Amino acid sequence: MQLKTFVSQLLAAFALVTVVALGAPASAQQINPTANSVQEQQLLDALQGQGTVSGRVSIPDQRSADLIKPGNPGWANLHNGTVSTLSIVAILGTLGLLTLFFLIRGRIRVESGMSGRMIPRFNAIERFAHWMLAASFIVLAISGLNLVIGRAVIRPIIGEGAFGTLTAWGKLAHNYLAWPFMVALALVFLFWVVHNIPNRIDLQWIKQGGGILKKGAHPPAGKFNFGQKLIFWAVVLGGAALSFTGIMLLFPAETATPADWQLFQIIHGVVAALLSAVIIAHIYIGTVGMEGAFDAMGKGEVDINWAKEHHALWVEEVEARESRPRGRAATPAE
Amino acid sequence: MARMKFLCDADRCIECNACVTACKNEHEVPWGINRRRVVTINDGLPGERSVSMACMHCTDAPCASVCPVSCFYTTDDGVVLHSKDTCIGCGYCFYACPFGAPQYPRVGNFGTRGKMDKCTYCSGGPEADRSEAEYVKYGTNRLAEGKLPLCAEMCSTKALLAGDGDIIADIYRERVVTRGYGSGAWGWRTAYGDSVSV
Ligand code: HEM
Ligand code: SF4
Ligand code: SF4
């Protein structure tokens, strides 16, 4: 009896100890190390669709420490939406407007007819710089546009393989012809900036709508009229913006952050679309749009009657210079 | 057809990097390219958490939407793959991807990034399944062998799940209900538009 009581007491004590011993780790397991750790939704809410959820990685590539960038698809939409729509609208829109203008106004003729007497307008170095700028621009514009809409326009026609090869070549051309473009841009700026400072005479040109809308109207202009000045500054400023953003795109390791790269990319695409529109109009007026205009950049000299109609003040300047005896002192610096 | 996804149950991830190593080894991924990595948030602080991340094979993948040569395609299993033959290495997909998945062999100054490389969900590329050409460019094609991605298969804590999205979401949901907490299916909201509701 006594032994029985003792054994049962012993068992009871043992049971108690066991319960206590097992109970302790059981309650320790309730504390989970991650239950109160940061939650994804908290981080995303804090970022509100922008910025980066990032941490630390043990591999030697710090860029991969960025875990989630919820804003990146937004850049994708800007590229696919805004940039591509703007490119299409700018180019087709300009072509449409020019066609309309051609149908209404027709070719702008030299009203007094060609005299056959030419005066020099652009020397060989100026023309070289212009054509270097033009040729590189056209290749840059086409290879750039191909990156935006080529996959929708050209790929269905020539197939994935050929389109990949073509675009790879286009990319090489874009990356390397950027440099002659920048050199030519700098030259053109240096050669012509003095003639492109806006002045009072431009007001008359603006008042008469450039004289392009009706026949017989010829507002006075110097070497460049106000329309040409606008094109000059669009090319210089737009070209500078494209050069800067383009270089940033070319050297992603030097561009501060991926977000900066994205911004430069969008600016590059938008400026390219706008400048392409300006250049299409420029090409139109320099070729089909106006009789006698192409000679200026083609041969370097223009018919005196063309010059009198479109750049009367410039003709006066040139003639005044020529009637004076040749000599260093007599040549104005212009 | 299944809709394949990854799900990292971050409450189980112990940052052992076995998934990272398994991937590199399985596909002979070159130096400098990491198709999968483990990111630790709040490292060394209270509330620290590790998440294993690779390409999430997004719905309406942003990478595919920006690619100027349209070299991406989505398989019947919902896996986002691309053709290295067509890729021009422009880098656009890297800037479009919310998860930093696209990787390049080189830093990329002067347009020299090289062909993009990323997680293939262990399912190769456009070449014939399990061909030598496919292996050299994209690594092994485990899916064609009826196997799931190796990273998830070898995860020691089964934190990283791979498989049909509905099934792994169910597994995750059950875990959250059983243990009483969960930090969310990391990346799902961004990749698929909505997360796993518990
Ligand atoms: C002046 C120096 C320029 C540089 C350094 C430059 C560089 C670049 C780079 C690096 C890219 C990214 C794609 C790639 O890696 O090939 C790019 C894209 C592009 N470039 Fe340029 N570029 C320049 C001038 C121009 C010009 C003059 C145009 C045409 C008007 C142009 C039009 C474009 C377009 C449309 C894109 C594609 C944008 C997009 O995908 O949204 N670029 N450029
Ligand atoms: S995770 Fe990145 S690379 Fe993968 S499908 Fe989504 S956007 Fe594309
Ligand atoms: S790097 Fe290759 S896959 Fe990525 S967007 Fe450019 S061409 Fe397409």
Q: How would you describe this protein?
A:
The complex is a heterodimer of chains A (334) and B (198). With 334 residues, chain A is mostly helical. Chain A has one domain (68-323): Fumarate Reductase Cytochrome B subunit. Chain A is built from 12 helices and 4 strands. In chain A, the strands form 2 sheets. In chain A, strands 1-2 form a two-stranded antiparallel sheet. A two-stranded antiparallel sheet of chain A has the order 3-4. The model of chain A is unreliable at 16-28 and 329-334 (pLDDT under 50). By secondary structure, chain B is of the alpha+beta class. Chain B has a single domain (4-190), classed as Alpha-Beta Plaits. Chain B is built from 7 helices and 6 strands. Chain B has helices at 18-27, 62-66, 92-96, 132-138, 150-153, 165-179, 188-192, and strands at residues 4-8, 36-41, 49-54, 72-74, 80-82, 160-164. In chain B, strands 1-6 form a two-stranded antiparallel sheet. Chain B has a two-stranded antiparallel ribbon with strand order 2-3. Chain B is globular and about 50 Å long. The two termini of chain B are 25 Å apart. The interface between A and B is large, with 59 and 60 residues. Protoporphyrin IX containing FE binds at residues 79, 83, 137, 140-141, 144-145, 147-148, 171, 174-175, 178, 181-182, 242-243, 246-247, 249-250, 265, 268-269, 272, 275-276 of chain A.
Strand segment count of chain B = 6
Oligomer: heterodimer
Mean pLDDT of chain B: 95
Helix vs. strand class of chain A: mainly alpha
From the coordinates shown, what is the CATH architecture of chain A? Answer: Up-down Bundle
Task: Itemize the secondary structure elements and their pairings.
The complex is a heterodimer of chains A (334) and B (198).
Chain A: H1 2-29, H2 40-47, E1 53-54, E2 66-68, H3 72-105, E3 118-120, H4 124-153, H5 155-158, H6 160-192, H7 201-207, H8 226-250, H9 258-286, H10 294-298, E4 301-303, H11 304-310, H12 312-323
Antiparallel strand pairs in A: 1-2, 3-4
Helix pairs in contact in A: 3-9, 4-6, 4-9, 6-8, 8-9, 11-12
Chain B: E1 4-8, H1 18-27, E2 36-41, E3 49-54, H2 62-66, E4 72-74, E5 80-82, H3 92-96, H4 132-138, H5 150-153, E6 160-164, H6 165-179, H7 188-192
Antiparallel strand pairs in B: 1-6, 2-3, 4-5
The structure holds protoporphyrin IX containing FE and iron/sulfur cluster (2 copies).
